[in-house]
Structures are given as structure tokens and as C-alpha cells.
Amino acid sequence: MKRRLLLVSNSTLHGGGYLQHCQQQIQDFFGKNVKRILFVPYALHDRDAYSKTARDKFKTLGGGNTFRLLKSLYDYKLVTEIRKRVLEDGIPYMGSSAGTNVSTISINTTNDMPIVYPPTFAAIGLVPFNINPHYLDADPNSKHMGETREQRIVQYHEEPDTPCVLGLREGSMLLVEGSKATLLGSTKARLFQR
Amino acid sequence: MKRRLLLVSNSTLHGGGYLQHCQQQIQDFFGKNVKRILFVPYALHDRDAYSKTARDKFKTLGGGNTFRLLKSLYDYKLVTEIRKRVLEDGIPYMGSSAGTNVSTISINTTNDMPIVYPPTFAAIGLVPFNINPHYLDADPNSKHMGETREQRIVQYHEEPDTPCVLGLREGSMLLVEGSKATLLGSTKARLFQR
């Protein structure tokens, strides 16, 4: 399998500029010979503005709302096409946040609000596990009573036949080359197994 | 319309016991003549344990995962039945968190992780708007780069024909009697209009 993926947890890290924390990895990933990049702007509402932003500054690639992004990928029949191009032809894929979610088995472990209804939660399936981007460790001082991220992923694993979930902290990213995955960045990740 | 609803943001408030912050309102809502309560335990995985807990202590009514709860309500064909009993027969309905989400037009504004795929995001529709339970004001000191709650609801309202969203802070609840809704509790709410 030829796949080459760079799956980033988040587009902006606190205190830094857009994609600044992963700039070097992006350069290494695409190399000097890539002349054109297909940018998928579906995760935000104003696609023209989002594309312009990405084109101008090469930033926030693949971020936005995961449900909106996945629904549009299905609406335009791009899910199997992207899978084919990445897995069979070796076209490099880079995603951040929502773009990372849709590259995995399913979007069941997104943090986003379900603002639109996609035809399925099954996603492009470029890796045989799920990712939780922006992974957040529980804050013992928090007074908020919503479930912690860990509790949510544990709830997911109560369901049958659910895959591993990689909790990718902000600042981390996963480089996938064929059957080898390497964790890059400074903040590490947490692997949840059913 | 006979409906009587008590829609609570959260089951536990920081520093208090289960349903302690809304105990008086629950007593007032159900009154002295209610002998039996139908408890819907679908939002958590272990339904027997959850039911026992609720029976023993009358707590965490309707909390848990919104997707799991709504999917089970459809699996058991309870959505239209509950709607009918509440709107036509005046059976009182109380929900907290997930139980509040499923009582509205749709679960598009839940905070929960989409761990299962329901047949639709349309919900029971006991009120003509949506609610965001556990509503959280943005923390200016946070270093986390995920979207704020406000940003998520604004993204929802970028979609066409989306209803109002009531951001119900932890500690707040909505009492609905016929066509009149009253905000109870100490922390207030925030109304988002498209």
C-alpha cells in the first residue's frame, strides 16, 4: 500500500501562527516536487473565502466542521475517489482536525457539533483506526460537568466492534508511510483500545 | 397543547449532589399525585445498572449520550409514541442533558460524541427550537484551540432553515407549560437566533 498521510491534530497551536507548529513537517511531507495541492474547503460554510485563505497562506488545511466536510464529500461522490487515489496511486494526503477525522475509519470520535446529517459516519478509511483530534486531558480543577474526553471515548468503546482510537493532542501529528506510522510533534498522543 | 416539560441542562452541578440543584423544581413539576415514572435508560450502555440507580436515588434522569439515546428511541419506535403522549395526553416529560436534547426539534446542537449513527437527527419535537445543554461561555484564558460553544452554534446557523438554539447553562432548566416557557435555576441561558 503506497499511502502517505500527514494527519494533524489542530491547525493552530496556542501562541503560534497558523500551521506554524507543523510547518517543517508539512515541508518535509510534500517535498519540493509537489506543484499542485487539492484543497477541500467543505468543512467551512464560505468555501471561496476558505480556499482563498488556504491558497494565500497555506493554512488551516482541512479544519472546520467534520459533519459538514464528510457530508459534502459524499454529496460530491469524493470519498471512494480520494481513497483510491491515496491508497492505490500514492497521492499524499494531509488533513488537520476535521480533515484528520474524515481520513480515518469513521467520524464517530469527532469533537464537532453534528450540524448536518451525513449519509453515514463511515469515512474515507485511509488508516485502520479512528483519531480524536484536539485530544484533551481531563482538568481536575474544572467545574464543568460535561463528560471528559476520556469518558466519551470509553462510551464509544462500549459499542461492539469499535476500532482503536488515537487521542492526538494539540501540537501532535501522525505521519503514515505505507504500513508505518510515526508520531511527530511535541505533545504526544494517547491510544485507547476497546 | 397540553405539554408539560422540565428540561434540565445537567444532572449534577459542581459542588452539589445528583439533581440537587433542581430537586425543588422536580418536586413541584411532578407534584404529589404522580405514582409512576417511565425512565428511559438508553443513553448509557448498562441499562439495568442505570435504571437501578435512577430508581434508587431518582437521579441523572435522561443524561448520557444523546446519539445512543435517540437511536434507541427510534429502534424501539418510541419517538412518535412519546410525542403523542406528551403533546396530546399531557403526560409530564422531564429530561436532563441528553434527555433535554432529544425532546427538542433535533439533536444537531448536542455536545456529545457521535458514537452511534441514528436514522436521523430529528428528535421528539416537544418544543419548536433546539437546546444546547451544558452551555459554556468562552474562557478567555483557555489555551485549547477547539471551537468555542458559541462558534459551533454559529456554524449550525450557517445552515438553511435552522431553528433558534437556547444555550442552557449548567444549573439552569426550562419549564414548559402549554405555550409558556419559564427559565428556572441560577445561571440563566443564552438564546441564539439564525
TrEMBL record, chains A, B:
Q: Does the keyword DNA repair apply?
A: no
Per UniProt, the keywords (alphabetical) are: Hydrolase, Protease, Serine protease
InterPro entries cross-referenced by the UniProt entry = Class_I_gatase-like (IPR029062), Peptidase_S51 (IPR005320)
Q: Name one GO biological process term.
A: proteolysis
Gene3D superfamilies referenced in this protein's UniProt entry, alphabetically: 3.40.50.880
Fetch the CDD domains from UniProt.
GAT1_Peptidase_E (cd03146)
GO MF, one annotated term: serine-type peptidase activity
What the record says about family reads: Belongs to the peptidase S51 family.
What PANTHER family does this protein map onto?
Answer: ALPHA-ASPARTYL DIPEPTIDASE, PROTEASE S51 ALPHA-ASPARTYL DIPEPTIDASE
Name of this chain's protein: Alpha-aspartyl dipeptidase-like
What is the species listed in this Swiss-Prot or TrEMBL entry? Answer: Sinocyclocheilus rhinocerous
